[in-house]
Design a protein that fits this description.
By secondary structure, the chain is of the alpha/beta class. Helix content is 29%, strand content 28%. The protein has nine helices and 16 strands. Helix 3 packs across helix 4. The two termini are 36 Å apart.
């Protein structure tokens, strides 16, 4: 029997089997046990989370590192994010000063189709392309399908013009080619019905949204759009939430503020921000409090009130505060300061 080198325990541990009192036994960065709350070996260091919730570290599948790896990943760690898949800027960069684990997407466009295999061999987790003309998107999706990879369709990447609603176009071609496809954000909530039909028909397609679209509204139309997106998340038509250009240190609190107000639970929060993003990226052994998984954890006070000092939430009161963040059992953020960065470069092999 292995003896843990750290125990994190709480009366609210969010596991795949629901939220329950538990002690999480950690050894060499891995979870070796999720056991009864009082099961703590004598002399073992313990993080007593008490009534604060313990969730898996969040997975952000659409992170921007343009402000620099160190600064961007510190913001992620402060938001309970322990793994990011980054939008490529200058290719794959080893995260020497990263607070969290980093993987990368590759850029895909019709004029770079011949380069996709070489890019895949560098270890990217899939490809991102912008909304494009049908002939171009079809060419890219065919190439990605041959690689058995994933294509993320994101409106802010590239500047192509679609011949029809961009999300509808991607859904239709996905159905024809069976390319594993993820819509980063729907071009319009009008596409929700088509997305529902596609998933019911077994198309290999998923879709997500962002904290910005789920929280901030300026008029009645945006308010109606927001409620449609929340309903789509709750019903499983949308699966994931990614920070995009929202401040990552506030993503969890912003989402929990709105989720709690609608009666949603921490278990659902973990599904939308941990488990489903990890499944999208085909990340193994992350984003669940399970034996054998990386001990990536966030201690979260869901009842604390937070008054952000940064836009776009300046002047708002948010619910929920990140108290501590762990990456593979090492504390990387303690609610006020950042500890030694220990992030790794994640690679996916063909």
């Amino acid at each position: 029997m292995f003896v843990p080198d750290l125990v994190v325990r709480s009366r609210r541990v969010v596991t795949p089997r629901g939220t329950q009192p538990a002690a999480i036994h950690i050894r060499s960065g891995k979870i070796i046990g999720v056991v009864g709350y009082d099961d703590v070996p004598a002399g073992c260091p313990v993080d007593e989370a008490g009534d604060a919730a313990v969730l898996p570290g969040l997975v952000d599948t659409f992170a921007h590192l343009s402000g620099g790896v160190s600064r961007a990943t510190q913001a992620a760690a402060a938001g309970g994010i322990t793994t990011v898949l980054a939008v490529p800027v200058d290719g794959i960069v080893a995260p020497e000063s990263s607070s969290v684990d980093i993987g990368y997407w590759g850029l895909a466009s019709a004029d770079r189709v011949s380069e996709l295999r070489a890019t895949a061999e560098t270890g990217v987790f899939g490809f991102i392309c912008g909304h494009a003309r049908e002939t171009d998107l079809r060419l890219v999706m065919s190439a990605v399908r041959r690689l058995e990879s994933t294509l993320v369709v994101a409106s802010e990447i590239g500047a192509g013009l679609a011949s029809e609603d961009a999300s509808e176009l991607a859904i239709r071609i996905c159905g024809e080619l069976r390319t594993r496809t993820h819509l980063h954000e729907l071009s319009s909530t009008n596409a929700l019905a088509s997305l529902y039909r596609a998933r019911t028909a077994g198309f290999p397609i998923t879709a997500g949204t962002s904290p910005r679209r789920l929280t901030l509204v300026s008029d009645m139309h945006e308010r109606e759009e927001r409620e449609l997106l929340w309903a789509a998340l709750a019903g499983g038509v949308l699966q994931a939430i990614a920070s995009d250009r929202s401040p990552p240190q506030l993503s969890m609190s912003a989402i929990w503020t709105e989720a709690h107000a609608r009666g949603y639970t921490l278990d659902q929060l973990a599904q939308w921000m941990c488990q489903m993003p990890a499944r999208l990226a085909r990340l193994d052994r992350k984003a669940a409090i399970e034996v054998g998984y990386d001990a990536d954890l966030v201690v979260f006070d869901p009842d604390a009130k937070v008054k952000p000092a940064v836009t776009p939430y300046l002047g708002h009161t948010l619910r929920g505060r990140i108290e501590r963040t762990y990456l593979r059992g090492a504390r990387i953020y303690d609610g006020a300061t950042f500890l030694s960065p220990c992030g790794k470069l994640l690679l996916r092999r063909l």
